[in-house]
């Protein structure tokens, strides 16, 4: 029997039948788990969201009458394999006026579905950067599908973990301004690492701490490679009307080629092999009175670069703390002094808050 055909004889009392939006949540890891906890908190305040399904890479659980949040994850672990085809089916069968997929995964297979869902009139709220931050063709597919389906694409969580970076940039463009350049720290995990690294302990030890805090992906090469930052830079540039392709971004990764080829467990056991390279760059920068920051830059000539840079003490990014992100937008109207957006840029809770905020904004 398909997940969609499951009968619910006695819907749980916590299910909001009068909700304004039906939602399906994809991903139950750090971010997805935090989002489910947020939903439990808001359920007591009668949040206008009705959860019809939840899925991860191994299992999926759908109930047209609605899912109660209590003990949801243990139920999910007993459910059948992941069925992405059921996502649209259960939402389109719903009587709620709004239908929303919330993608809290980093999965390419899920990102490839975004355009299809949008074209069907299903709103997509996402922390997944792949659909908009990969090939330019996929970016255009998302925009066309959104227009065709009359649907919205909530992507605040893709850049800056919900900081008003994308919204500020889009507001500038709507008001007739034009982005000239961008400079900033776009990764909360890399920000944490280089804000705290002072040479007193190995970089690999600090990386382990960042991983335990949930700042990095389980395999931190996803962060250290620079690919994640490059995707964010592409999303920002394209949102500003600058149609860069993936190959236009020069990326300096921090993982040596011989470590990039290993499986995840072996890489984690050999993290210490990164230490010498980072320490050398740190000592080199310190000798010039500078500090290391992993920066993303978009120049007025259209050049795009992501990598480790030694910046002077008076550089805006030199004063960052914790896992802060910083976006400095130079535009025609902010030419002399850039428009700066700064704040926490990593963590499951702030990312989940951005996802919930985008979903609720669709209702308001």
Automatic annotation (TrEMBL):
<dbReference type="Pfam" id="PF00742">
    <property type="entry name" value="Homoserine_dh"/>
</dbReference>
<feature type="binding site">
    <location>
        <position position="217"/>
    </location>
    <ligand>
        <name>L-homoserine</name>
    </ligand>
</feature>
<feature type="binding site">
    <location>
        <position position="129"/>
    </location>
    <ligand>
        <name>NADPH</name>
    </ligand>
</feature>
<keyword id="KW-0486">Methionine biosynthesis</keyword>
<keyword id="KW-1133">Transmembrane helix</keyword>
<keyword id="KW-0028">Amino-acid biosynthesis</keyword>
<dbReference type="InterPro" id="IPR005106">
    <property type="entry name" value="Asp/hSer_DH_NAD-bd"/>
</dbReference>
<feature type="binding site">
    <location>
        <begin position="27"/>
        <end position="32"/>
    </location>
    <ligand>
        <name>NADP(+)</name>
    </ligand>
</feature>
<comment type="pathway">
    <text>Amino-acid biosynthesis; L-threonine biosynthesis; L-threonine from L-aspartate: step 3/5.</text>
</comment>
<feature type="domain" description="Homoserine dehydrogenase catalytic">
    <location>
        <begin position="164"/>
        <end position="359"/>
    </location>
</feature>
<keyword id="KW-0791">Threonine biosynthesis</keyword>
<dbReference type="InterPro" id="IPR036291">
    <property type="entry name" value="NAD(P)-bd_dom_sf"/>
</dbReference>
<feature type="active site" description="Proton donor">
    <location>
        <position position="232"/>
    </location>
</feature>
<dbReference type="InterPro" id="IPR019811">
    <property type="entry name" value="HDH_CS"/>
</dbReference>
<dbReference type="InterPro" id="IPR022697">
    <property type="entry name" value="HDH_short"/>
</dbReference>
<dbReference type="InterPro" id="IPR011147">
    <property type="entry name" value="Bifunc_Aspkin/hSer_DH"/>
</dbReference>
<comment type="similarity">
    <text>Belongs to the homoserine dehydrogenase family.</text>
</comment>
<feature type="binding site">
    <location>
        <position position="105"/>
    </location>
    <ligand>
        <name>NADPH</name>
    </ligand>
</feature>
<feature type="transmembrane region" description="Helical">
    <location>
        <begin position="20"/>
        <end position="39"/>
    </location>
</feature>
<dbReference type="GO" id="GO:0009088">
    <property type="term" value="P:threonine biosynthetic process"/>
</dbReference>
<keyword id="KW-0560">Oxidoreductase</keyword>
<dbReference type="GO" id="GO:0050661">
    <property type="term" value="F:NADP binding"/>
</dbReference>
<dbReference type="GO" id="GO:0004412">
    <property type="term" value="F:homoserine dehydrogenase activity"/>
</dbReference>
<keyword id="KW-0812">Transmembrane</keyword>
<protein>
    <recommendedName>
        <fullName>Homoserine dehydrogenase</fullName>
        <ecNumber>1.1.1.3</ecNumber>
    </recommendedName>
</protein>
<dbReference type="GO" id="GO:0009090">
    <property type="term" value="P:homoserine biosynthetic process"/>
</dbReference>
<dbReference type="Pfam" id="PF03447">
    <property type="entry name" value="NAD_binding_3"/>
</dbReference>
<comment type="pathway">
    <text>Amino-acid biosynthesis; L-methionine biosynthesis via de novo pathway; L-homoserine from L-aspartate: step 3/3.</text>
</comment>
<dbReference type="InterPro" id="IPR001342">
    <property type="entry name" value="HDH_cat"/>
</dbReference>
<dbReference type="GO" id="GO:0009086">
    <property type="term" value="P:methionine biosynthetic process"/>
</dbReference>
<dbReference type="GO" id="GO:0009089">
    <property type="term" value="P:lysine biosynthetic process via diaminopimelate"/>
</dbReference>
<keyword id="KW-0472">Membrane</keyword>
<keyword id="KW-0521">NADP</keyword>
<feature type="domain" description="Aspartate/homoserine dehydrogenase NAD-binding">
    <location>
        <begin position="27"/>
        <end position="145"/>
    </location>
</feature>
